[in-house]
Amino acid sequence: MNITDIKGTVQLANGVQMPYFGLGVYKTNDGQEVIDSVRYALDAGYRHIDTAAIYKNEEGVGTAVANHAIDRKDIFLTSKVWNADQGYDSTLKAFETSVNKLQTDYLDLYLIHWPVKGKYKETWRALEQLYADGRVKAIGVSNFLQHHLEDLLPSVKVTPMVNQLEFHPRLVQQPLLDFCKKHGIQYEAWSPLMQGKIFDIPELQALAEKYGVTVAQLVLRWNLQKDVVTIPKSIQEKRIISNADVFNFSIEVADVAKIDALDRGERVGPDPDTFDF
């Protein structure tokens, strides 16, 4: 990943340019709250917005994008098919619902939200159809561990271009990172700030002081230096701007290793293997 500025991109396996820094809107309320959050981000230079059907704020995201001066084609928009909608026909229907709410006729990236056993292969077949039809520029998965990918890959026509997972200093999962890289699957982080828990880790506080940055900026820069696309969530304009201020410093290799060593296999979200779908 060539890290340049907030509008920088990483090239996916099919050649699509995906902005490596974006705004996540999980638990951001629909209506004015999410409209304002997306507007703050776009004003600050973000060009990547990540939502999902289950977030129930696609309408607000769509309104913010439609009303902004930036052209839709210059905004990378992601959504995800929810577990209850998985399956071939139901996924196609869910996609139409999402793009209608988002006031667009295509998505830049569409993901399977969770690996629902017995359903994700048919769901993937629907995503391949949407991709073939030009309705989606890239397709991928979310919360797929290595064994899920090993089960899925032999049956696909198109390899997932992205795998979005919980990723932060307490949950690095380096073997999964390596597996995705080997197969040309771009790793993407959700909850990169560990829903605020990173601020309680003394080693991160010390490193942030060394670089003269906030703990959040340190961790988000670490994400990028690990070649991981990152989408921190905030509804506060100052925080949204601050989170993106990670392009005027670089973490030394030895310090990247120190952050890697904080891995405890600790999750703040559900475990894909035990999540009650």
Automatic annotation (TrEMBL):
Residues 26-263 form the NADP-dependent oxidoreductase domain. It holds the Pfam family Aldo_ket_red. It comes from Chitinophaga nivalis. Keywords: NADP, Oxidoreductase. InterPro entries: AKR, AKR5G, Aldo/ket_reductase_CS, NAD(P)_OxRdtase_dom_sf, NADP_OxRdtase_dom. Belongs to the aldo/keto reductase family. This is Aldo/keto reductase. It comes from the Bacteria.
